């Protein structure tokens, strides 16, 4: 959301209704004491456990991103890591009643939502049901050349992916080289004092500067 688009929390979170069949908005007013009567101690422990698992997973991603290691294990992730640290309660809350028959659609920061859905679904399965699912998946992937739902064989997918990976790698290398050489003009968005460059970690690579010919901001 652009910073120029101001959202007034005082107005947005006022109690009201969405016109349909009178859907209540911001009208849930149970106290903490009333909420605690709905759940058991085991519920609260599981809620906290699920939140801690999500926090540890995202902390791991953050360590890998900024330190290239986690608990002494080296790993490099050159891509983005869209974290949702601090939003664990939302993910666990919306998934707490879901099981394997439910669907959830996350955002671009949906690690927590997916993990919470998985943990909730697993908790509702018996050991026998969970084991049957695991055996079914193991049997599928143990086949030498299984096919997906479209009938494409695994070997074909692997070859196609390897070719795609090589093509993308070569294209990214070419673009980066052109950026470094100044052969590509860059026009980052800018509003007031800030621009995309304000938050970019790669300014030393692209060498964007308005003193160079062809480099200018796209003012919004």
Describe this structure in words.
By secondary structure, this protein is mainly alpha-helical. The protein folds into two domains: 15-142, no CATH class; 154-219, no CATH class. 49% of the residues lie in helices and 8% in strands. It has eight helices and seven strands, in the order H-E-E-H-H-E-E-H-H-H-H-E-E-H-E. Strand 5 and strand 6 form a beta hairpin. The model has no long low-confidence stretch (mean pLDDT 82).
Give the CA-based shape: extended
Strand order of the largest sheet: 6-5-7
Overall number of strands:
7
What is the H-and-E element order?
HEEHHEEHHHHEEHE
User: How many helical elements?
Assistant: 8
Fraction in helix: 40-55%
Which structural class matches the secondary elements? mainly alpha
Instruction: Compute the CA-based radius of gyration.
Output: 24 Å
Average pLDDT score: 82
% residues in beta strands: 5-15%
Total domain modules: 2
| Unreliably modeled segments | none
Main sheet attributes: strand count, strand direction, barrel closure: 3 strands, mixed
